Amino acid sequence: MAAIEQGLQQKLQQKLSPLQIQTIKLIEMPVQALEQHVREVLNDNPVLDDTAPQGGSDEPRDVSISEVEEREQSGGSLEENYGSHDDDIPSYNLHVNNWGKDERPEYNTFSVKQSFSQSLLEQLGYRNLTDHQRTIATFIIGSLDDDGYLRRDIESLVDDLAFRAGVEATAEEVEDMLKVIQQFEPSGVGARDLRECLLIQLEDKKRTPSVENAIRVVDTQFESFKNRHFQKIMARLHLSEDEMKAVMEEIRHLNPAPGGDIDDSYNDQAQQVVPDFRLDYEHGELILSMPRFSIPELRINHKYSEILETGRMSNSKADKDAAAFVKQKIDSAKWFVEALRQRQNTLESTMRAIIEYQRDYFMDGDESSLKPMVLKDIAERTGFDISTISRVVNSKWIETHFGIFPLKYFFSEGLENSDGEEVSTREIKKVLKDLVDNEDKHNPLTDDELVDALSSKGYKVARRTIAKYRAQLDIPKARMRRNL
């Protein structure tokens, strides 16, 4: 029989407190989500009151949580210590103030634009269609991608109409309704590919010789045009160099993604930016503020403060149970306020560390002044964990005197220059973009030539890195950048 061994093993395990868990959740929230969460907490906790009493009222006043804490320490009654009226009470103690002091409209109002789908459905309403046609058209609109394209074939739409909407329709009926939608604004909507999108927009333009030629090029020579084989197009369509340049100018002003013209505020990808921070530049000094949100002064509804007081003075089990319930809700509110305070301190400390690290950049917004910076750099300056810095940076924005930016924007890896100094990849990308913007478009720079050009400016970058940065900057290859 095998011997049974017994032993003790010591294991170190770290558990997060409820306050830490709550603080972590609040840190991750952008300011709009945080405001909504505060409102939910106030609504869910019946003990809390955010209604300021009217001046001169004889009704018992609400009591602040800080007053309850003082009462617990002093041993006196609420009425004895604080009276029953709100005379001479500072106004900031009488209500929940979670809106900050900034009165600028961009911080306190939100403009929700008409969504892409709503715009199309509104235009559909002006068409004289049967109910059957309208149902088909509505289904097609719901099938469009965010950029306004229909990337599904007609037969699959016919099948989906039957199985999902219970509508029997022919391919011809669906095609007819698609043509109706393709007449809507923005021009090009409902196209099935880029060629059709450009053709729709050209057909909507006033017919000039250059527009007529552009229609011919897109309709019959689209692949050659995509590959910038201009000489072939000119020979096949008998166009002069000036005519070809006019065609390119017409096409250059078309919109390849018509759905992007209208902000779909009901789409998860759409985003309304409300900065958590504001950085002002005054008299040579950088001044950081968090104007959108301030920690609320939570107050206890006077009815519940009376229950709490009665429970302390009574021997009744019912009264004591009621008081225990109120106390539990008060404790919950205190934990929440403390979590809000820790969130505010964490965000402010992190943002101040970022500003200190990138001070030269924040003075004038020059991208070349951005230093390489990773999460670890800020974690070391603040003493917070890297995971905490990551949560602060995620979904947070700052308004500066030169624009509004996500906090992620200020972080980038670095490369060495010819002097052995570390420079930001963002700086190299800016130099790369400037080189491409200023190149001879008749003879654009190849990736190898861009490597040499960057090297002459002191940046040591490999060819594959150039290709990667080009892709990130949406810069096509050299032959795709060539003009006549």
Describe the structure.
The structure is a single chain. β3 (277-282) and β4 (285-289) form a beta hairpin. Among the domains are: 191-254; 277-295 and 337-410, no CATH class; 414-481, Arc Repressor Mutant, subunit A, CATH 1.10.10.60. The chain has helices spanning 18-28, 31-44, 65-74, 78-82, 105-108, 116-125, 131-142, 154-164, 171-181, 194-204, 209-220, 222-226, 230-237, 241-252, 302-313, 317-357, 359-364, 375-382, 386-393, 425-437, 447-456, 463-472; strands at 48-49, 63-64, 277-282, 285-289, 299-300, 397-400, 403-406, 414-416, 422-424. α1 (18-28) crosses α16, α6 packs antiparallel against α7 and α10 (194-204) runs antiparallel to α11 (209-220). The relative contact order is 0.10. The chain is an alpha+beta fold. Helix content is 50%, strand content 6%. It has a 4-stranded mixed sheet with strand order 4-3-6-7, with helices on one face. Residues 75-114 and 262-271 have low confidence and may be disordered. The longest helix is centred in the last third of the chain and has 41 residues, at 317-357. The chain starts with 17 loop residues before the first helix and ends in a 12-residue tail after the last helix.
